[in-house]
Design goal:
single chain, Phage tail protein beta-alpha-beta fold, 13-stranded mixed β-sheet, three-stranded mixed β-sheet
Length: about 325
């Protein structure tokens, strides 16, 4: 997929971006995710386009198809009228006016495209989807005032408009930190993962739900873990629990280590190199290979910056005398 966007208007007109933004279950969404992972230099522009659509979606009410069509016709009529007016001007005055007109047409067209997309993708109510790309973080406020901070490559879904007194349900794939608001009705807040559920009323915790691992770190309040086979465990602040094959196990876990990602850092404490590189792959969606088997278990300790892949790799190179090779989209680490 060969794409190179220069502005957000081009992005919000892209069907695959819209499929990704609205969480559609089709090939367009997967193709966009693959393109985004291969083009990290465009992540900031994509984030701007998403924020632009976020503002439209928040204010959006159901727009009839006829109303969208009329808006498009009015836009085209306005463009034709501007062209007629500009053509009647003296030649020397046309250029600056035409540049201004083109800027206005581009902005107006972007709004029409965005509203049309909202109408197209939201003809039926779907759960709200919040997601992050590789190398990205995002904070989202939920309908009850609770806040969730998403780590890279994470999806959180929830139903629209939580009713008072009813359970507040969220589904997560990836990693996120929840700050759950208490409600007067003390309604339960339930986070669903593929391996367990977390039941709370008001608390703060970090949860990981990825293919190869699932865990929770509780920082405040109390929660109850429930597995699909009926096992349960109550947690208190400071507890770190892993769930593997329906087995719930308390383990040693340092809060500053687990939550370092919120500060855009990676925390290592005698961590073998291959595990450290797995974290990098997970966060940035890149392939990292150890070129020399002898350095596979070299221990890594310290706090490294994690807001830029190149800076992170340079830090590894400088601090531990690793040699970093970038070749054909792959990163090779040798010593």
């Amino acid at each position: 997929m060969d794409k190179n966007f220069s502005n957000i208007e081009e992005i919000i007109a892209d069907e695959q971006f819209l499929a990704w933004y609205f969480g559609s279950e089709n090939s367009g969404r997967q193709q966009w995710e693959q393109w985004l992972a291969s083009n990290p230099h465009q992540a900031s522009l994509v984030a701007e386009a998403r924020e632009y659509l976020d503002q439209l979606v928040i204010r959006e009410e159901t727009v009839p198809e006829a109303q969208v069509s009329n808006a498009e016709k009015k836009l085209m009529n306005s463009i034709e009228e501007w062209e007629t007016t500009i053509a009647a001007m003296p030649f020397a005055e046309r250029a600056p006016v035409r540049r201004l007109a083109r800027w206005w047409w581009t902005a107006a067209a972007a709004v029409v495209v965005a509203v049309s997309a909202i109408w197209l993708f939201r003809t039926e109510e779907k759960p709200a989807l919040v997601q992050t790309a590789f190398g990205e973080m995002r904070e989202q406020q939920l309908p009850d005032g609770s806040k969730v901070t998403l780590n890279a490559n994470t999806e959180v879904t929830y139903t629209h408009g939580w009713e008072k007194g009813k359970e507040r349900e969220v589904w997560i794939k990836g990693e996120a930190f929840f700050h759950v608001a208490k409600t007067p009705e003390k309604s339960r807040f339930v986070v669903h993962t593929s391996k367990f559920d977390i039941v709370v009323t008001g608390t703060q915790f970090n949860v990981v739900n990825r293919e190869d691992k699932a865990n929770i770190m509780l920082t405040e309040g109390s929660v109850t873990l429930l597995t699909s086979d009926g096992k349960s465990m109550k947690m208190v602040p400071g507890d770190f629990v892993e769930v593997n094959k329906q087995q719930i196990e308390r383990k040693a876990g340092r809060e500053e280590n687990v939550l370092a990602w919120k500060e855009k850092k990676l925390f290592f404490d005698n961590t073998p190199l291959y595990i450290a590189l797995e974290k990098i792959e997970e966060h940035y969606g890149v392939k990292v290979t150890i070129g020399n088997v002898n350095c596979r278990n070299v221990p890594i300790s310290g706090i490294l910056p994690n807001d830029n892949l190149n800076v992170l790799l340079d830090a590894l190179d400088a601090l531990y005398e690793f040699h970093v090779i970038r070749k054909n989209g792959e990163i090779i680490i040798t010593q």
